[in-house]
Amino acid sequence: MSLISSILGALGMGGSQASDQSADHSKLMGALGGMLSNPSSAGLFGMLEKLKSGGLGGAVQSWIGTGQNQPVSGDQVRSALGDEHVDQIAREAGMSKEQASHGLASLLPSLVDRLSPNGQLPESNQLSSMLGSLKEQLMGGPKQ
User: Fold this and answer.
1) What is the pLDDT along the chain (144 residues), one digit of tens a residue?
2) Structural domain boundaries enclosing 94
C-alpha cells in the first residue's frame, strides 16, 4: 500500500465510501493541497509552526511522533491558526469557517501522522511531491 493510499484510508477516503465527513475532508484537502506545498506560505511546516506557537505544540508533536495522536478541537485550531487563515481555507473548500476549523481538527492529526511515519516529517521536496500526489488523487485528475 502506498503512502498516499494509506493517508486516504486513514482519513476515511479510501475505496468507494462516501460519507459527509470524508466529503468534507476531501474538500479541505483540495483547499490545503496547494497551500501546504506552497513555499511562499512555508507550506505544511509553516502551518505546524503556527499551531505550535498558538499553544498546540504538544498536540503537533504527538502527531509527528510515533505514539498516540492527541486530539484538538475546532476552536483550538481556529485560535492557533487565526481567523484569516481558517477563512481562506473555508472559502477555498466552499464551507463555513466553523466547518473548516472542525474538519481541520479531525483531519490534521491523521494527515500529519501519516506524513511522518517514522516520527519525522519528510524533506520539503519529498513533502511537496507527496502532497501533490494526494491532491491529484482527491481531485480525480492531474495536478495543475
Assistant:
1) 455 555 556 555 554 444 556 677 778 877 777 667 666 667 788 889 999 999 999 999 999 988 899 999 999 999 999 999 899 889 989 999 999 999 999 889 988 888 888 888 877 777 767 766 766 665 554 444
2) 20-137
- The set of cell numbers assigned to 17 is 465510501
pTM over cut 0.85? no
Does 89 fall in a domain?
A: yes
Is residue 29 in a domain? yes
- The rounded distance, in Å, linking the Cα atoms of 80 and 18 is 30
- Asked if the structure places residue 8 within a domain, the reply is no
Dmax (CA) for the chain in angstroms is 38
Alpha helices in the chain (DSSP H): 3-10, 20-36, 43-51, 57-64, 74-81, 83-93, 97-115, 124-139
In a domain, 15, yes or no: no
As for how many domains the chain has, the answer is 1
Give the CATH number, domain containing residue 88: 1.10.10.690
Cell digits of residue 14: 479510501
